[in-house]
Specification:
Elements lengths: L2 E5 L7 H14 L3 E6 L1 H4 L11 E5 L20 H10 L5 E4 L3 H12 L9 E7 L6 E5 L9 H17 L8 E4 L10 H10 L5 E5 L11 E3 L2 H28 L1 H9 L1 H11 L6 E5 L5 E4 L5 H15 L3 H13 L1
Parallel strand pairs: 1-2, 1-4, 2-3, 4-11, 6-9, 7-8, 7-9
Antiparallel strand pairs: 5-6, 5-10, 10-11
Length: 330
């Protein structure tokens, strides 16, 4: 049975939604939870019937969201430091945190370590597409703002492995995000990366921003600067569309009637663009598993982040990445 370490203290709304999400996950999946935090605050939130699958690691220090990520390396008593070290020490198979994302990324990279051959780990995020039941994976979305061509090539390999092993896409298509589909488009780094990616059978060439959501490719590769802007823009657009629809529906009796008839469609749309449905973003390329969640995560988001950790840890993704990188280096 897998053991998942959970940083219970780092979220914007305190431990309550994190614990509730953990309980929801325990109801649906078999795993053991190692909850890191102040047990005097946490135990009253947990029904007694779950104590046989929950253990506590005591921590009363919390890294604030506004602190520098580098502080995490010095603060060894914080909940995130202790949670990451549980994976480092092989006491847990994965760590889930909705706290300071920079601290989680830094600690996971430096304390757990990189996979053999990996130059830089990347944060990957799942995006909805217009094709029913199909998702796309974008990486990097924030771990590396400045990248070399060889970093992008490795992101492609790691993303393809995640799509195959975790998302269960049999033959993923990989695209390089650029400002045009033509091989000549892009900056110097992306052009050089294009020439390296030609070696991958899964590589389909350059893709543009709209291809992230149209289902034409499964994995989209970019540096963390571009990827983070893409991620935040898409979240903002989804939120704005929802608000625009609500505002216009309220203004017209006819629109209200139409909204009642379209309630199921709106429900599906909301579900597809809700980050809580995907839970968190895996840091791919470390010698273990770390899932980085949104600071504003609700219980559903925490539950799904834990499910991501379970699916990741149950797969062969890390060994597949090492094997693929070793082949390319020859």
């Amino acid at each position: 049975m897998l053991t998942i370490a959970i940083d219970a203290m780092g979220g914007d709304f305190g431990p309550a939604p994190i614990i509730e999400g953990t309980i929801q996950a325990l109801r649906e999946r078999k795993f053991k939870a190692l909850i890191v935090g102040d047990s005097s605050q946490l135990k009253p939130l947990i029904p007694s019937e779950y104590f046989d699958r929950i253990s506590f690691v005591e921590s009363t220090d919390v890294l604030d969201m506004h602190e520098a990520a580098t502080n995490a390396l010095k603060r060894k008593e914080t909940s995130i430091y202790k949670a990451v070290d549980l994976v480092r020490d092989k006491l847990a198979d994965a760590v889930v945190s909705v706290g300071h994302s920079g601290a989680t990324m830094s600690l996971a990279t430096l304390r757990i370590g990189r996979l053999k051959g990996v130059l830089r780990p990347a944060i990957a995020t799942i995006m909805p597409t217009a094709v029913n039941g199909k998702l796309s994976l974008v990486l990097d979305v924030g771990a590396n703002v400045d990248c070399k061509a060889e970093h992008l090539a490795q992101f492609a390999i790691m993303g393809e492995a995640y799509a195959k092993d975790v998302l269960k896409v049999p033959r993923p298509k990989v695209g390089l995000l650029s400002n045009g589909e033509e091989e000549s488009k892009g900056n110097e780094v992306s052009k050089e990366a294009y020439s390296l990616l030609r070696e991958l059978d899964s590589f389909v060439g350059n893709v543009e921003g709209n291809n992230v959501f149209d289902g034409s490719v499964d994995v989209i590769v970019c540096d963390g600067f571009v990827g983070n802007i893409l991620l935040k823009t898409s979240e903002g657009v989804a939120d704005s569309i929802t608000k625009i629809i609500k505002q216009n529906v309220r203004r017209s009796p006819l629109a209200i009637a139409g909204a009642v008839l379209m309630r199921k469609v709106f429900s599906v749309l909301k579900k597809q663009v809700d980050y809580a449905e995907y839970g968190g973003a895996p840091l791919i390329g470390i010698n273990g598993c770390a899932i980085i969640g949104h600071g504003k995560s609700n219980a559903k988001a925490v539950k799904n982040a834990i499910f991501q950790a379970i699916n990741f840890s149950s797969s062969n993704i890390n060994s597949d990445i090492e094997q693929r990188l070793a082949i390319l280096e020859k």
